[in-house]
Amino acid sequence: MSNKWFSFGSQKSIRWALLEKLLSASLMSILTTYLIFYGMITLNSGSNKLQDTLLTNSNIYLFVIAALISSLVTMIIIGFPFSAKIKKSLSELQDAHEALIRGRIDIRLEAEEFWEFDQINNKFNSMAIQIQKQVESLQRLVNENKKILENAEAAASLGERKKIARELHDAISQQLFAISITLSAAKNIIESNPTEAKKLFENLEKMTHLAQQELRALIMHLRPVRLNGMPLKEGLISLLRELDEKNTNISIKWEIEDLISISQGIEDHLFRVFQEAMSNVLRHSKASLVTVKLCIRKNVLLVYIEDNGAGFDISTDKKSSYGILTMQERVSEIGGRFDILSYPNKGTRIEIRVPVEVSQNSSGE
């Protein structure tokens, strides 16, 4: 039999530790029962012939019952702390796994008393280190290839123009055509049926407003996709303030904390994701309030974008599928995680988590 069954240096196997606890509990209970029973029989019989006294049927039954009760109490006293240790180790492993999923790639587990848990923790730490190296390598490649990305974006400008032209045709031109038809109808009935004409003009106002929103969203796609040296916080506040001023039907609230110095490539990616997200809100959400929050917690950059609009069924609605896919790809390219939660008539919430390297002199959490 391998010696791994028993112990590993200063560590013990769970099986050996459990067997040790059970043996200790059994010995303690037997000894305790014998001493208590010996004292009781001696006092009651007044005789030193313990063997004769113990061998009576009633005393044997009492001894067995006392042994069982003593064993149960002793095993509870010893077993509860032992099971608490195992539960604590499992809880720490589960918490570390959840933290890793949420972007805490610097999470590590400490050495354990039991060999099995220590081996699991070592493998978990090795996996976390590997993930951290891959994310850092990915972010470094994004930063190093920034010039290549810029050239690629320039080369793709023709495709972007075609996409915008297609959207102008599919959305704006159709809305303008509808406005023209409605205006013509209103002009013909304005004298004969003023009430109906008023309804048509109200519809015209709504259609015109919708066309303005579509145009602003498309104009956003023509904005520079990079910050051009501007810090991410400053660039985002400038973008959100401009959108809030130009769109009177929607209120935009933001809470953007002071950020550490992030590589320019990552900042450009995040800025473009913000542009795409806000474009989707303006074009599809019908929201009256949008809340944006950006902060850094435990080496993870957290972004939340939430609106109170119409929402949609993520599994079936294709309106924003292209934009969502674009955002997912951009976040994935910098080693982050993109989640979206939306239900019809209940609004939409976007959550982004990107691992970042916090400098020693940073004051952030």
TrEMBL record:
Its main location: membrane. The keyword Cell membrane applies. Its EC number is 2.7.13.3. Gene3D superfamilies: 1.20.5.1930, 6.10.340.10, Histidine kinase-like ATPase, C-terminal domain. It is found in: Cell membrane. The chain crosses the membrane at residues 21-40, 60-82. SUPFAM superfamilies: ATPase domain of HSP90 chaperone/DNA topoisomerase II/histidine kinase. Keywords: Cell membrane, Coiled coil, Kinase, Membrane, Transferase, Transmembrane, Transmembrane helix, Two-component regulatory system. One of its GO terms (molecular function) is phosphorelay sensor kinase activity. This is histidine kinase. It comes from Alkaliphilus peptidifermentans DSM 18978.
